[in-house]
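[audit] Reproducing an earlier prediction to check determinism. Same input, same settings, fresh worker. If the tokens differ from the archived copy the diff job will pick it up downstream; this log only records the rerun itself.
[audit] input (169 residues):
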Amino acid sequence: RRPKLRTVTMYTTRPIREGETDGVEYFFVDQERFDEMMDEEKIIEFRSYNTKCGIWTYFTADDGQIELWQYDYLVIGTIESYYALKEYFDDVMVPLYIEVEDGLRLSRALERERAQTKPQYAELCRRFLADAEDFSEENLERAGIKRRFQNIDKETCMEEILREINVNL
């Protein structure tokens, strides 16, 4: 059977980039809204980064998007966000690690950054190096992530992920 998959839209305090739409890639909020949601105990997990452009926070909120009794979800995040979501949702998370060869990942990021009116190349480099550390072999192993999906061709990668999800249903 084909799973009823939905995505979860994360939140961020970083500025919206050209070509992004609020509520699609992320919900773009300011620090004040983040603090309000924290006070309301709606934040499941968050990560803050001291970027070349200031401190940016990314987070997942318990805002009514997630209805585990009705749907399965795909969530994009870091290993730290995986741990926090797994704890919050009583261990129902299954990690799916999508891997991109470093040169291709850097090339894609550079292409996206070049399309911006004010490219932030220093931040791109910081993020690239931070991801290499965050998703190190040791961290992947510690998280129990064994199955990897190669994102060379989007359609093939998606088909492989859907097959894997069907196996785990």
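[audit] rerun output stored. Observation attached for the diff report: Residues 154-168 form the longest helix (15 residues).
[audit] end
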